[in-house]
Amino acid sequence: MQQVKLSSTWEAIREAGQNVLGEVARQGYDESFVFSVRLALEEGLINAVKHGNGMDSSKHIDLKYSITPECVEIVITDEGCGFCPVGVPDPTRDENLEKTTGRGIMLMRAFMDTVEYSERGNQLRLVKHGP
Amino acid sequence: MLESKPRIQLTRQGDVMVVELVDRKILDEVTILEIGDQLNALVGETDTPCMVLDFINVAHLSSSALGMLITLHKRVREKNGQLRLCNIQPTIHEIFVITRLSEIFDIAESRTAALVGLI
Q: What is the ipTM of this complex?
């Protein structure tokens, strides 16, 4: 897997995201596939900066990725104390529909084949298989 | 204080504010805050705001952007106004469907369709 160490800034994750997505597109995946990976990658990186590292630019994000004709695998690790995804309420329940947060994980799950958190909850693994 | 970049383009059709989102990607907090501020300022201008929000340029948005839109929707509703979204690309529309936000928002296919009944 390729590995990049990022500072917790919007600029850093934007640039890293573009690099990864450029490689995904170069691998020949179609627009819909790239859209799915972009959505999950950006949600994951934004969560790492915002919730994991608390917008502290001195903290780092470890981004690992592997892009092959068979699948795209991305692992994002932040320096936060982690969280429990099970505790996130279902945003599609009637009582949560107008809440302004809590949709990121659901969207990642909708667009990727695998969305897994480490036991500590500070590492996210995303996988999408090719068609 | 730094002025934020214009994130929206406003035209008026009668009492309706037709607002085109300028950015192709609405992802990071700074962009989302600036768009939210600029839209809220418009909503604050009138007693019963009537707004069409045109997504023609938008190819990507994050879950935080959805949060900003929900806040805007609530604000418009509190003022007994109307908010209609239009020109949402199919992939973005899928996000609205998956999250069931398509049931909350009034979504029209085109700007012309969005203006029907408003002007």
A: 0.89
